[in-house]
Amino acid sequence: MADIRLGAHTIKSHGMKVARFHMHDWIILLLLGVLEIILNVIDPFYRFVGKDMMTDLKYPLKSNTVPFWAVPVIGIVLPAVVFIGIYFKRRDVYDLHHAILVITDAIKDAVGRPRPDFFWRCFPDGKEVYDNVTTNVICHGEKSVIKEGHKSFPSGHSSCSFAGLGFLAWYLSGKIQAFDRRGHIAKLCILFLPLLCASLVAISRVDDYWHHWQDVFAGGLLGFVVASFCYLQFFPPPYDVDGWGPFAYFQMLAETGNNIQGSTNTNPLTSRPSEVETVYVQSEQQVGIYMRDINPTLDAMETGRRD
């Protein structure tokens, strides 16, 4: 029997259905965005900073090599451009980033670790002032600068970069089937490019004296772990034979196959045992999903043979 090719499931044909099905996800997304704003407004925990601790906090106050506005571009827009290029719905990656931002800022506010350049944030004129009893610092710098100085752990740049670009690395590994056991080094190089970019962002935070190395390591680990969980929630592992597509797509194929088989068996005069298999076809001419009937009797009739 001739192969039956499934029609394309575009945003125009299935967009409203998907939007209605995931309405609760968008509501949670909005709430997470509000929570992110609140966590950025409230003051962090002001950890004790004694005079003897200032030796490790006298690094120069520098500007950011990677500015704050560039983090969403690197962690969200850059992966989204790749996803759009292969017609991927971006909802998952936005969920990911709002979640990772909330986790990062919640930990920042709770820990309150001073940044490596805290001395110059606290004493911009270089004149040190300490409490005579507790020896705690008495800062006389700009309030907003001091507040930001207590948000060292973990690194937000690192967590967001590894969340977005780590998700992109997972995504590409499935799409190009990097673990197909054929030993293509070029595929691994493609996967390492997003991770290399995220690593460079993380290293810049140490070079700029905005974070300790422990902050960067924890932020990167946090971002990549969350990216991994989010990817495996929607996609099979990249080494799986079906690792190129999301779970929802294969579920749709199974439901479509059942509908085709059910409609064939509704007429008792034309009903017959049917065997249907789903085949992923990839060649130089075409890439797509096909459903074909593998009933041997019908195949023999179509070819003019009689058993």
Any overview of this molecule?
- Strand 2 (276-282) and strand 3 (287-293) form a beta hairpin.
- The protein has a 3-stranded antiparallel beta sheet with strand order 1-3-2, covered by helices on one side.
- It is mainly alpha-helical.
- The protein is elongated, with a radius of gyration of 27 Å.
- It is built from 11 helices and 3 strands, in the order βααααααααααββα.
- It has 2 domains: 1-21 and 247-307, no CATH class; 42-234, no CATH class.
| Share in helix | 55-70%
Q: What's the total count of β strands?
A: 3
N-end to C-end Cα span: 17 Å
Biggest sheet: strands, sense, closure? 3 strands, antiparallel
Class inferred from helices and paired strands: mainly alpha
Oligomeric form of this entry? Answer: single chain
What would you report as the Rg, rounded to the nearest angstrom? 27 Å
Write the element-wise H/E pattern from the N-terminal end onward: EHHHHHHHHHHEEH
Helix count from the secondary structure assignment: 11
The mean pLDDT is: 68
Query: What is the overall shape?
Result: elongated
Strand arrangement within the widest β-sheet reads 1-3-2
